[in-house]
Amino acid sequence: MIPGKFDYHRPATLPEAVKLLAQYGDEARPLAGGHSLIPMMKLRLAQPGHLVDIGRIKDLRGIREDGGEIVIGAMTTQHELLASALLAKACPILLEAGQLIADPQVRYCGTLGGNVANGDPGNDMPAVMQALGASYVLAAAGGSRRVAARDYYEGPYATAAQTGELLTEIRIPRPAAGHGHAYLKLKRKVGDYATAAAAVILTLSGGKCAAASIALTNVGDTPIFAAAAAQALVGAALDGAAVKKAVDIAKGMTRPAADARGPVEYRTYAAGVMVARAIERAKSRAQKA
Amino acid sequence: MATRTVSLTVNGRAATVEVEDRTLLIHVLREKLGLTGPHIGCETTHCGACTVDLDGRSVKSCTVFAVQADGGQVVTIEGIANPDGTLHALQEGFREMHGLQCGFCTPGMITRAYRLLQENPNPTDEEIRWGISGNLCRCTGYQNIVKAIRYAADKLSGRGVKEAAE
Fold first, then answer.
1. pTM metric for this prediction
2. Do the interacting molecules here have an ipTM over 0.90?
3. Cα–Cα distances in Å, from A148 out to A137, A248, B40, B43?
4. Does B126 touch chain A (CB under 8 A)?
């Protein structure tokens, strides 16, 4: 399978890249790791006339801290995330989710920016970013702006990014010291998208939940930020009743499709199981922290 | 038809090829350079038969445009053997431990394991399994592939190898 024809551009700098994206408008797509876009181009699900390869722009790579935020360049690969000592210490949910994405070869190429930007509801990092309260920096020829991950996703492959805008950075407020985290993903095999998956971040105080956030992957047209479910945990000892309430609220927010991963009822049930297990794992980690 | 010149170093030798922008790396390797070791299996980024080493990363060459690899260092199965022509420890391991049956996945498996062992010279069997989880084998059930990679890891690190498979 060979993709359709396109013109290839390889800008060396971010200003050149956004200029090309502005020039070609809807005809152009940025090419990051290519491991979502190239398969879609082979199947003619995407037929861009111009590809703007941002793989050689050094400014788009790297992981650093800036004030109270962890800043990850959009072209940072999943492989690089998994190797980051900074993230292992400060934001370990990214490693837990990252190792569940695709397979080793794909993770050498696939980027965090590509995973969060394209709006594929099967991608894992969008829900993680919603749970973390991250925001995305979108650059365009006229300047840049920030969009919260919780406001970014509008539908399958439909996002708040406008034509000509390029995701350059993911900015994550540094999670509280001693927080508990978990990303639980039910999948059929390595490389599969989730049947259902849940991200949980929480903190404990005096044995009770002081703050929590929950988000779900691939059980709707977009990632689902389940604020009401998380709210049901706050102030509770994270015992059976509070967890059951959160799980029930989260299940009520899902809108999974029936597909090869199972019928709607099964995937809804699986989402509840992932939420319950993620809460338990996050709680256990917070207790040990 | 517009073409573009791409320069690569493949198995230590410089190569310059004319390609369309849409030409995939696997097609350059197989059709322009005659390196038919990397196989075309699924063409959908799943099977790993087309795995090659590109700038120190294992990549599925069916999902990389040749233009993206411009200037890059590529190693294929044809470049794995030792300079004196003797088999690399991985090749020896696959032979000694019966790590292949039909052989279709083998070039991708060995090329992937080549990078895995450079990043993790003494992996556990569990780490080997995760390390080759992007490569499908439909014959062996993987057991002897894991043993073959373990054999190579032990030989390369001087730990001594276990006896060959029965």
1. 0.96
2. yes
3. 9, 26, 41, 36
4. no
